[in-house]
Amino acid sequence: MRHKPLIMALALALAAPGAALAATEIDQLRAEFERKLKEVQAGYEARLKDLEGRLARNESTAREAAEGARQAREAAPKSAGGGFNPEISLILQGRYFSADGDGHITGFLPAGHAHGREKGFSVDHTELTLGASIDPYFRGYANFAFVDDEVETEEAWVASTALGNGFTVKAGRYLSGIGYVNEQHPHAWDFADQNLAYSAMLGEHYAQDGLQLKWVAPTPMFLEFGLEAAQGADWGDRNGLGSKAAFVHVGDDVGASHAWRAGLSYLRVKAKGREGHWDDDNDVEAETEFDGTSKFWIADFVWKWAPEGNPKYRNFKFQAEYVRRKEDGDLTCADNTADGGACVVGGITDAYDARQSGWYAQGVYQFHPQWRVGYRYDRLDVGSVDFGPAFAGVLSKPDFTPKRQSLMLDYNPSEFSRLRLQFARDEAEQGLKDNQITLQYIHSLGPHGAHKF
Amino acid sequence: MRIVSTLASLGLALGLAAPVHAALEVLACEPEWAALVREIAGDRARVASATTPSQDPHRIEARPSLIARARNADLLVCTGAELEAGWLPLLQRESGNARIQPGSAGHFEAADFVELMDKSQRVDRDMGDVHAAGNPHIHLDPDNVARVADALATRLARLDAANAAHYAARNRDFQNRWREAMQGWRVAAAPLKGVPLATHHKDWVYLARWLGMRVETTLEPKPGIEPSAAHLAEVLRRTRERPIRMIVYTNYQSPRPSRWLEEKTGAPAVRLPYTVGATPRATDLITWMDEVVDTLLAALK
Questions:
Q1: In this complex, which of A223, A416, A452 lies closest to B90 when CB atoms are compared?
Q2: Which of A137, A236, B29, B244 has its CA 20 to 30 A from that of A283?
């Protein structure tokens, strides 16, 4: 169509002076015009063909180049974990959550914080993980959790790979090896929320900045020891404060269809200015701060069954943990008299001594390659809580046993996507029987590698 | 001084107590590689397999028992091509064993030594569980087994130079027996040439190519995605246009989709031994492949 203006110009140039020309001249001119037009058309067609040919040749050379590049790529050494270095993975999580309460647990001074308690629709933490071998001696890993304008470094560590003899040293911020579920990020949980014992005493999970030394014994049965020395979790001001942990894990198979792991862990943390809250004797919430020592003992047990060790079609997982916490130090409650509270003007500080515990047990059954159903029972023991004499008539131990039951069903279209529905009857807060519904999705993008046993 | 001499004599005693030829500790990821190590190393290696023929090598958990085995291994013999991506990296990391880390001589990946089929130009998760490197079920091509055996003999010699001649001799012997067996299978399997079949997963492509069989369709809509009713109906429609002679699945795959198709088409559903140990007769690589060929021939009748 590009020759249209040309033809028109030509026609105009020929026609303009010819108003008075004779008919024969017009015929001659028309013949000449048609001849020229044909020439122009033929010229254009030839050029077009030439262009087309060149384009096609370019395309095929481009294809060849791409093919060459592909072959070169394939010939290049394969990197572990999906052809990327580092392995980058993004976890997208969101939920609809319906509940009456605000997630308070009566009788426990909370440590750490919990996420995902927003009611209605919300986006959970979007997790970005990066992991790779740094060189033949170290591996690095980082997990960043994004929510709104906040980015949290959940983990950022380097670990040795070349020490040998069963030793691994990890340095940086890491999820402590204590307990069983502590090392799992929320997307790996079998339920939409963390168990009550952890929530009440450890926070969502216990991460800390420091060093971890692990040793796997050269035994036929799995036997692993771990030691951690760290700065302590982010429980208020932790400058110069310490945390020490030790754990031992044992595990083995029983026949081809059963496998288990058991563990025992100890954690000792110094807390300074650890914030919490407690319902005072006037039934008003009092803000508290704890300075002192927290000692934990955790026993954990996991047992998995899969017919002939093939978990694809059916498998069952039983998991239970017992957490015991002993705390002693000083507690301060902030003045809440403005709200009608019992904590007097200027606040109160006195001794605080508590021995508390909690446990949960859960079973998850995969009855179809894509479907799982699970039940969890949580129970806490407020135990002995001794407030110093200055707290008489202000703070006291409640006569209450927090507990919760949860039932979940999840659908997994593939290994990389999960949709979950969970019902919970939460009786962790005194005077509240909270029926909670969670509808959740957890999707992962990228080479998201294996989860631990 | 006394303590030092006591310690020295203790060390000497321990050293003497150790066997002259400390056998290599080998952890194979799959039974076929454990069998190959047994062929080439004989009594110079203690071999364990991380998986059994009843387990899908894609879907294994990094169980504590496997970490304990990896802890003591001198050599890992695995398929590679991302087949074990869901669990092997964990065993390597959690074991604290420097000898078997990726890139070290103690980490042998069979897929490095053969030409892989089904390499994808584009790899996206919307295609299911595909491997960018190519189809990892390489041991189902006997020529591949021969190539991997050569590479494995070289690797064993590198790790245990004192026994290099032993590994080379055993490999020669194995190659001779294997070549002879291959000729036998080719002759016996002549009737299988051009036979169209359906498979549960896209795992038999190497064998089909070697025997000249035609894989018309797979029951899984996409690799690793379980067959759905809708997809099976589509498969059935396709088999009406292009008939199949048999439907093949393995020990660790559900027989139900294959049996359903058997009922609809009349083509027999065949549980084909995927690896060594899958049937009582398949005690080593040669008897296993004997069993594979015989099972296919029996299904043809």
A1: A452
A2: A236
How many whole angstroms separate alpha carbon A202 and alpha carbon B97?
32
DSSP 8-class letter at B53: T
Look at B20 and A201; give whichever has higher pLDDT. Answer: A201
Using a pLDDT cut of 70, give the percent of chain A over it: 80
Residue-averaged pLDDT of chain B: 90
pLDDT of res. A117: 75
CB spacing of B54 vs A159 below 8 angstroms:
no
How many angstroms separate the CA atoms of B154 and B144, rounded? 16
Other Cβ atoms closer than 10 A to B282: 22
Copy the structure tokens of residue A302. Answer: 């996991």
Report the C-alpha gap between A111 and A120 in whole angstroms. 25
Give the DSSP letter string of A235-290. Answer: SB--TT--EEEEEEEEEEEETTTEEEEEEEEEEEEEEEEEEEEEE-TTS-EEEEEE
Q: How far apart are CA A420 and CA A414, in angstroms?
A: 13
As a whole number of Å, the end-to-end CA separation of chain B is: 81
> How far does the CA of residue B194 sit from the closest CA of chain A (Å)?
30
Cα separation, B163 vs A337, in Å, equals 84
| B18: pLDDT strictly greater than 60 | no
| A161/A115: higher pLDDT | A161
Q: Enumerate residues 43 to 102 of chain B having a beta carbon within 8 A of any beta carbon in chain A.
A: 51-52, 54-56, 59-65, 67-68, 71-72, 80-82, 85-87, 89-90, 92-99, 101-102
Q: ipTM for the complex? A: 0.86
In the structure encoding, which two tokens stand for residue A167, read together? 């030793």
Dist. CA A366–CA A64, nearest whole Å = 48
Name chain B contacts of A218, Cβ cutoff 8 Å: 71-72
- Peptide bond just before B221 cis, omega within 30 deg: no
Residue numbers of B between 135 and 194 with CB closer than 8 Å to A? none
- Residues A110/A200, Cβ–Cβ less than 8 Å: yes
Question: If you average pLDDT over residues B266-290, what whole number do you get?
Answer: 96
Which among B55, B62, B71 has CB closest to A310?
B55
Other Cβ atoms closer than 10 A to B229: 9
pLDDT (average), residues B212-239: 92
Task: Find the range with the poorest average confidence among A15-29, A81-95, A436-450, B60-74.
Answer: A15-29
Does residue B273 contact residue B53 with C-beta atoms inside 8 Å? yes
The torsion angles phi and psi of A242, rounded to 5 degrees, stand at: -125, 160
Residues 282-321 of A with CB under 8 A from B: 304, 308-313
CATH numbers and ranges of domains, chain B: 21-184 (3.40.50.1980), 189-300 (3.40.50.1980)
Nearest to A82 among B51, B65, B132 (CB): B132
Helix axes B164-188, B31-41, angle to 10 degrees: 120
Query: Which chain B residues contact residue A165 at CB under 8 A?
Result: 96, 98
Distance of CA B172 to the CA centre of its chain: 21
pLDDT of residue A204: 83
Computed on alpha carbons and rounded to an integer, the radius of gyration of chain A in Å comes to 35
What is the average pLDDT value for chain A, to the nearest integer? Answer: 85
Q: Who wins on pLDDT, A9 or B273? A: B273
Task: Give CA torsion, residues A147, A149, A154, A155, to 10 deg.
Answer: 120
Measured CA to CA, the distance from residue A200 to residue A194 in angstroms comes to 10
* Buried-exposed string B163-194: b where 16+ CB fall within 10 A, e elsewhere: beebbbebbeebbeebeebbeebeeebeebee
Q: Can you spell out the DSSP letters for B159-208?
A: H-GGGHHHHHHHHHHHHHHHHHHHHHHHHHTGGGTT-EEEESSTT-HHHH
Q: Is A114 left (phi over 0), alpha (psi -120 to 50) or beta?
A: beta
Question: How confident is the model at residue A116, as a pLDDT?
Answer: 52
